[in-house]
């Protein structure tokens, strides 16, 4: 390898070299020879000739053979050693002690100090070039086995510069794309310029919004473009689209974001605007007053109903028919805890099913056939139903006009509200326990628990969602929460609900502008059958409500919002 390349053709720096495997050239020194280079290792670490005993007792230096050389060195009769020229590469040299009849001293090793490497100083006369200076003592040799890479400080590439008035730069981590980096950077600057103009009214509150939008839009365009020509065309289209957007007034404005984000937000805003249940848009869905009695609503034309009331607030001691098991019982509070198993009932409804070729009515709660013993136990409870005269004796009815006439201060009446109530069983029958009112945008206006004035028989937690101890935190009674509701419900307010006549009766409120989703989405069999709210929501809106009634009960807020969304769907569908 070295011979054809011409490497190591210089003369050996040691004129008296005794190395058997030396790489340098040996022979008669040339007068024009350049000064020998500084050796890099001490003679103490070099291989030396070990002494061997010859047959005549003289010390003969042993010769180290090259690896793979099968020729053994022979010993001359004079005590010298004869080496094969192939194994050494030069003619034998006399001993270092006998060169030119002069004694040559061995190199002297001088320590440079404690902890410092030693240097070799040649003691031959007339030569100062063989001195080897010690390396700098401040440098430390690498520790064997410590191969940990050197940690280099690498500046992380960021797309958003410190000066937000400058356009962003593409992150260096950008993956390979069909578009050159320079073209993408130029397009990014163009998008940033358009976004900066668009976001000028809100940049003070969101200074990096233009940078983020430009980076996101450029990345989307690059990912969706197959080649440079399509990429440039898409960038031009995006820049024009951005320049034509209306200036945003907030970070949540539909004009903010990439083309895709802005399009989705704009469509959602237009959809919400088109389906917003304003009074003018939904008044055609109101139930006519003439049909109130047909659907079981309190008659707003019955003036006697709103006069007096409250003569018999509790039915304790009277005989009633249990609403669950249809058994006659006497309303009493005695030994109530011990009577928790006096009523056996099914809380589910019956539906026809064909079993073994026969049509049977099966309870949804337990799967038993109609007529079998109940699957639940509890106390007997009752309800006055839609008998307005009995309900009036418990708590008197009032119209919205009567309530608002006695109110002082500003009124925050809303055009359209949705309302839902939850009921419990007391000694006065089915009584109001919670009322929730939301506006046309679904924001909660009122959500209050109602403190009952009479003893509670059963919280009906499976459906009301009221648990023991919840009513202890209630601050308002029925009259107070009814007055609070009329802070948002005015004489011209339209109330939306599902089976709203039950909620109005529980609240003892009479109103003539109502929209009932049970009537708006009629049952296939017609009146008096009604569809469940959860079925309407599942069919029209595509999601589920009341799916955890067994452990959480109903949520009046969820039901109120669901009825409002069903009305929006109806308005939007009819407008198409």
UniProtKB/TrEMBL annotation:
The organism of origin for this protein: Papiliotrema laurentii
Ranges of Polar residues composition bias in the record: 50-61, 119-129
Q: Where does this protein have compositionally biased stretches of type Basic and acidic residues?
A: 100-111, 260-274
What does the UniProt keyword field contain? Exonuclease, Hydrolase, Nuclease, Nucleus
Write down the PANTHER family for this protein, in alphabetical order.
Answer: FI18136P1-RELATED (PTHR12801:SF115), RNA EXONUCLEASE REXO1 / RECO3 FAMILY MEMBER-RELATED (PTHR12801)
Coiled-coil regions, chain positions: none
Q: Quick check: keyword Hydrolase in the entry?
A: yes
| An example molecular function term from Gene Ontology annotations | nucleic acid binding
List, for all copies, the residue spans of the domain called Exonuclease.
Answer: 415-576
Location comes to: Nucleus
Bias kind Low complexity: ranges: 29-48
Q: Which family does it belong to?
A: Belongs to the REXO1/REXO3 family.
Q: Kindly indicate whether the keyword Mitochondrion belongs to this entry.
A: no
Please state what the protein is called. Answer: Exonuclease
This entry carries the following GO cellular component terms, namely: nucleus
Q: Per the annotation, which location comes first and is thus the protein's main one?
A: nucleus
A Pfam family reported for this protein in Swiss-Prot or TrEMBL: RNase_T
| GO biological process assignments | negative regulation of gene expression
Residue ranges for the region (Disordered) are 18-147, 240-274
Q: What is the lineage of its organism?
A: Eukaryota, Fungi, Dikarya, Basidiomycota, Agaricomycotina
